[in-house]
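Severity: low
Component: inverse-folding endpoint
Summary: output formatting inconsistent between runs
Steps to reproduce: submit the following structure tokens with default settings.
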């Protein structure tokens, strides 16, 4: 819808709110504009138009109540214009007046959201992956429906190590020793995997590095073309979210360590099928890009139904590399250089949410 003059009108300011989380968020995203607030008459609060108020409502009440299940995620609260005057949430006492301000200024109402069940893991290919008796047939689909991508000779990527014994020794940046294999997302006992990325920040997240650590990053170069299965690709499917292999794999790589048995089985099958490795979505993709898990519009996945679905999905996905075996020892990868990495600044960006609803 086109922006109207009324949409540009200042309705509230950050000083209107009692709740500290709402006040901070409103100040962060509001307009630095002269004049008094039409609601509270404050002169130094950040000003909020209708769009600002709706954004504040989404971050605090939708983003701030989103919960993760074993696979998937969904918000507890949603809002729309149809529920104006009919809100049914039960907030903390200090939020009641703030909610009324938001509702009346943006003409919206809040309600408890009943998500479509695919959002919390009711996806048939995912359920089959969880069933050891059906897992192999879905993995066969993964190997055939996801595209092959050739990573060209000379391509570079990064591998980060925390507190290596001999940081100047290139061998320190190969896959972990066989004795240590089987602890990561894709490696198994007697099946080592080299993990890397073209995004150094993601390497830091993946290694859980902190400012107290001695951190070293190797720049690695491929010595031959590598044939990789690309699991970051967005599949085009003529099915609902409930039958979507794309949604199933997307959920798998955003899940925590309870999902590792499945992803390891996919890696082993890819190795047996002749692949050199995988391109897979980083678990930290959403934190790195600022994305929200499993966004929907009217209950439909934006990953599938966004007008530019592929670009939308790629904008919130950071690809990692998993190369099978010990690529440095096998001379398919070489160390171009090694640098010490010193963390000088750490920052967190997020939004607040209610405690009770």
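Observed output (run 2 of 3):
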């Amino acid at each position: 819808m086109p922006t109207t003059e009324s949409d540009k009108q200042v309705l509230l300011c950050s000083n209107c709110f009692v709740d500290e989380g709402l006040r901070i968020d409103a100040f962060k995203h509001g307009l630095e504009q002269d004049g008094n607030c039409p609601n509270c008459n404050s002169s130094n609060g950040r000003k909020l138009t209708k769009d600002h108020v709706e954004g504040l409502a989404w971050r605090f009440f939708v983003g701030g109540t989103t919960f993760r299940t074993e696979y998937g995620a969904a918000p507890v609260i949603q809002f729309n214009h149809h529920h104006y005057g009919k809100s049914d949430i039960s907030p903390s006492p200090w939020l009641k007046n703030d909610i009324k301000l938001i509702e009346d200024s943006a003409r919206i109402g809040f309600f408890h959201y009943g998500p479509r069940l695919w959002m919390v893991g009711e996806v048939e290919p995912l359920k089959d992956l969880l069933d050891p008796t059906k897992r192999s047939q879905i993995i066969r689909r993964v190997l055939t429906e996801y595209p092959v991508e050739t990573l060209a000779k000379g391509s570079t990527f990064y591998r980060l190590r925390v507190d290596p014994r001999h940081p100047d020794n290139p061998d320190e940046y190969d896959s972990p020793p066989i004795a240590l294999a089987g602890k990561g997302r894709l490696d198994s006992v007697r099946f080592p995997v080299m993990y890397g990325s073209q995004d150094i920040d993601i390497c830091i997240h993946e290694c859980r590095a902190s400012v107290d650590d001695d951190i070293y990053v190797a720049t690695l170069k491929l010595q031959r073309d590598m044939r990789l299965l690309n699991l970051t690709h967005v599949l085009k499917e003529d099915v609902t979210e409930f039958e979507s292999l794309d949604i199933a794999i997307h959920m798998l790589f955003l899940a925590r360590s309870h999902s590792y048995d499945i992803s390891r089985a996919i890696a082993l099958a890819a190795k047996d099928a002749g692949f050199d490795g995988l391109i897979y979505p980083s678990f930290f993709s959403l934190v790195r890009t600022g994305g929200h898990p499993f966004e929907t519009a009217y209950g439909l996945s934006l990953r599938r139904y966004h007008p530019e679905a592929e670009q939308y999905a790629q904008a919130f996905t950071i690809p990692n590399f998993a190369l099978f075996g010990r690529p440095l020892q096998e001379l398919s990868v070489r160390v171009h250089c090694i640098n010490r990495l010193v963390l000088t600044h750490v920052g967190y960006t997020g939004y607040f949410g209610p405690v009770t609803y």
